[in-house]
Amino acid sequence: MKISALPFNRQFDPKNGTPVDIAQNVVRITASNSSPYTFTGTNTYILGKNKVAIIDPGPNEGQHLLHLLNAINDREVVAIILTHTHKDHCALARRLQQKTGAPLWFGGKHRLSRPKHFLEINKLQLASDWNLTPDRLLEDGQTIKIDNIELEVIATPGHCANHLCFGIVGTPYIFTGDHVMGWNSTMVATPDGSMADYLKSLDRLIAAPYTHYFPGHGGAIKDLGEKNNGRSFAHALKTHRLMRNAQIIEAIESGADSVSQIVKQIYPDAGAKIRLAAGMIIEAHIEYLADKGRVRLQRGFGGKTRLSIPENAS
């Protein structure tokens, strides 16, 4: 089974370090931490006019801190808000807090989406800040006021357990962190993340009134009509994930009984870095399918798995 490519947009000039006005009283500054996983760098957003809030301060880079402070321009920072606690989004939080005195608002300390299995390794262990604690715990359904902007908090676990999105009430705009990005599909790696949670969270965004997505990496997914906006793109992402489930089942039915064999079938021409990332995502899909009873997952020593299709799988 072949899956149609998603309509990714990688034609994006981040203007790293430069404040870019992207909506009324919303400025984007992209850090210079480009990589295969962060694309052109992490997007930091400054919200407000007289008083401001920062969404995702980004990596712990002195130059990025200077760019943010210059853009803030001595205005009061009422909050430093995090979509989640992977370091490329939050590592600068403490230094920015020291400079501004602003409290940290986010969805709780970093935590796993499920307990680790015996001898299981969390491949995103070092990518996460396990010690950062919020001054204010943000919860699903809350609204928070920033100057003349009202934000709706939407819990979107999946990429990681404490992931949040923030919609600007009364507008089409929403900050989607790493949950939905226009340049690539989201990394979902167990036990840090959960494919079941990710799919449910996609449904939440699709049902929400926001259509113009500001992601954590890459350019905006804009409202260009009913069939070309953030919601329709989120729907396409979900369809892609469900088709990937079917592709994995087909691979197992054809004899693949391990993650590495499935990766070779689905990504035959991929390089080592792509295979590593693909393997983590495939593992998340397999766990989702096993929980649904569609795949039998036998865990062995050192995290090795053996896969098969149950006789009564539907």
TrEMBL record:
Q: Which InterPro entries match?
A: LACTB2_WH, Metallo-B-lactamas, RibonucZ/Hydroxyglut_hydro, Sec-metab_biosynth-thioest, WH-like_DNA-bd_sf
Q: Which residues cross the membrane?
A: none
Keyword Hydrolase found: yes
Q: Which UniProt keywords apply?
A: Hydrolase
Q: One GO MF term, please?
A: hydrolase activity
Q: Does the keyword Hydrolase apply?
A: yes
Q: Which residues form the Metallo-beta-lactamase domain?
A: 41-217
Q: Which PANTHER family match?
A: ENDORIBONUCLEASE LACTB2
The protein's name is: MBL-fold metallo-hydrolase superfamily
